[in-house]
């Protein structure tokens, strides 16, 4: 029952074209039936009366054979097409689903696992539909019809076969089950290996800088080794399974040949019938043997379906649920916001503050105090455990994620870019057309016009993997230009600590000031100039706001803030 449910779930997820599938299965069965007619014709050719024109019968046999090949080719192509279409649907579904996962998923799981599921697991399904299903259909048809024909031809010989066939399968089943267990472990291992290898490749800089190559190679070698071990185990089982099958099958054939030969010599069986009989035996050996691989193929698909289904349990974001938000003229307010990433540790405790329209609110505090977490809550990557974030007095949860995030411009500390061109990066996520003139304007606002002038291909220059072909300051300015292009109502700035040289820093600072003009801005401040100019400063310590006010107010009242300023001055 659960097996059937599982399969239904797969078909429900992949939504194959049922009509086309029925046609393909019908063709597969038809070609199997044509295959069964050929030995009968051969029998007629051999045992027929001397007057029967054997060339004519031979031509008929050839015609039937060609027809069988044509139909079988068509059904094979159709089933492959259906399998590929299922995989396409599954992959689209998985990509849509995974991109909608809440951010927390990506912070815990390894992306390579998802890649493996999307590629390897779905491929197993394609193989099953494209190869195993046709084998199964034609196998069943061949088996059923052959047994009927054999009984019709000679019941004594048929009884021998009917008794021995299930015996063969009985031998194979336990080994098939073992094969499945190994292949399930192999699939899991492949997913883990893909995940770890992807991670190594994407942190090449860190690996090289820490002389970590040898350690990484060792880790990978361990995984490759265990894949090798599983492969060997699979090989062992197969090396027993294959000869065992051959032994059983050959024994059966020899027995039938001996018995049939005896009957022919006694004159109770015609030679043509005997040959036809033998051809039928050979024709059903294939399906009987393939049943064991279909079984293990099915088990693999079951495992793959389970893994894909696990993704359904992950919490996803609904981007469009809720009203459109209008930020213009509205205050943004935190009311008693408490938040924890996990049960063990509360990160923000009863944080309350208000940001009036176009004000700049700076967050200052020791490392790990919860400044970025506040940003995460504003971006709605996470929800407060208690308390509320209000926009114009209304709970942020009322508004659609999409409309809220459209209003936010985020400039991170160290901007990473997507691989692609500068244009791709600037316009990423925008649905409207953007002209070069518009790009010129935002690049100039971001103090970055010379970056474009310097590059021979201008906006069409490639930025390299995660922007590695550009300098830190250039990447920052592109991020600022990207924010300008969106004309956000709300700005989230994570100031860089000290990654830029003083000239670049000045330029970036100017660009940021341009961006902050006439916008409500939240900034994680590391520079004195920023806090001095902020309308309000929130000093956060261990998730609590321990000081709130202007620079001068805090300087007079908050010791740790004073220390922070002195440190900045010294720098
Ligand atoms: N995704 C996460 N899951 C679990 N814990 C997290 C996560 N992100 C941050 N934390 C923890 O939350 C606490 C606050 O981190 P947060 O990044 O908000 O601090 P911060 O004030 O921005 O620090 P910094 O100035 O060093 O960037 C830290 O103890 C950190 O370990």
Automatic annotation (TrEMBL):
Keyword Nucleotide-binding: yes
ABC transmembrane type-1 domain segment(s): 22-300
Stretches assigned to the ABC transporter domain: 332-567
Major localisation: membrane
Gene3D superfamilies per UniProt: ABC transporter type 1, transmembrane domain (1.20.1560.10), P-loop containing nucleotide triphosphate hydrolases (3.40.50.300)
Pfam families: ABC_membrane, ABC_tran
GO molecular function annotation: ABC-type oligopeptide transporter activity; ATP binding; ATP hydrolysis activity
Any one of the GO CC terms: plasma membrane
InterPro entries: AAA+_ATPase, ABC1_TM_dom, ABC1_TM_sf, ABC_transporter-like_ATP-bd, ABC_transporter-like_CS, P-loop_NTPase, Type_1_exporter
Domain of life, per lineage: Bacteria
PANTHER family in alphabetical order: ATP-BINDING CASSETTE SUB-FAMILY B MEMBER 10, MITOCHONDRIAL, ATP-DEPENDENT PERMEASE MDL1, MITOCHONDRIAL
Descriptive protein name: ABC transporter ATP-binding protein/permease
